Automatic annotation (TrEMBL):
Belongs to the sigma-70 factor family. ECF subfamily. GO terms for biological process: DNA-templated transcription initiation. This is RNA polymerase sigma factor. One of its GO terms (molecular function) is sigma factor activity. Residues 126-175 form the RNA polymerase sigma factor 70 region 4 type domain. The keyword DNA-binding applies. The keyword Transcription applies. Keywords: DNA-binding, Sigma factor, Transcription, Transcription regulation. Residues 23-86 form the RNA polymerase sigma-70 region domain. It comes from Natronogracilivirga saccharolytica.
Length: 192
């Protein structure tokens, strides 16, 4: 048995590299926003790239490769989430020990502590507010406001009517606005 690739396999790899690979960085950022963890985002991206290559024959040349790839990432994320939600939570002792050591070392590091505290607190609050949005609202919000996809592209990726995209965006933005307003009130920027 020969290990040499056929011309058809070589052509598929070249086409895949030309169409899909330019979107890898943006796709990783999207995966990161979905998973909120760099390691999980890398795993999701790798899984999605394998699926994209496997089913590349179904991709229609000349269409939006990034949207096609994002749809694969979203579907993979949903499938992984469903699978994980059926399993009991797992704790890795090494991670807990590392986390504990990190906390101890940060507590003894006093250089610019106040600036670090406020920077992380505000970033964390906004990220938490975004992460607390229901998935149905967060995903269209990220795709539209962060990734700059059109309503039509989002509707195709999420497999919902364009009117649903519009209503989810409106509702998601309203929910996020309320959460941010609550944060601002807690910080004393807005009066009750």
């Amino acid at each position: 048995m020969s290990n040499r690739l056929t011309e058809e396999e070589i052509k598929k790899q070249e086409d895949f590299n030309a169409e899909i690979m330019p979107h890898i960085d943006a796709t990783y950022n999207y995966a990161l926003r979905l998973t909120t963890d760099p390691n999980d985002a890398e795993d999701l991206l790798q899984d999605s790239i394998v699926k994209a290559f496997r089913f590349f024959n179904s991709f229609q040349k000349g269409t939006n490769a990034r949207a096609w790839l994002y749809r694969i990432v979203k579907n993979s994320y949903i499938n992984n989430y469903r699978k994980a939600s059926r399993q009991p939570p797992k704790v890795d002792y090494d991670e807990v020990a590392t986390y504990y050591e990190t906390i101890r070392s940060e507590q003894s590091d006093t250089t610019d502590l106040q600036a670090r505290f406020y920077r992380s607190e505000y970033d964390d609050d906004f990220k938490k507010a975004l992460d607390e949005l229901p998935e149905d609202f967060r995903t269209p919000l990220l795709l539209c406001d962060v990734e700059d996809f059109t309503y039509e592209e989002i509707a195709n990726m999420l497999d919902v009517p364009i009117g649903t995209v519009r209503s989810r965006l409106h509702r998601g933005r309203s929910l996020l606005k309320e959460k941010i307003k609550d944060i601002a009130k807690k910080r004393g920027y807005l009066k009750n």
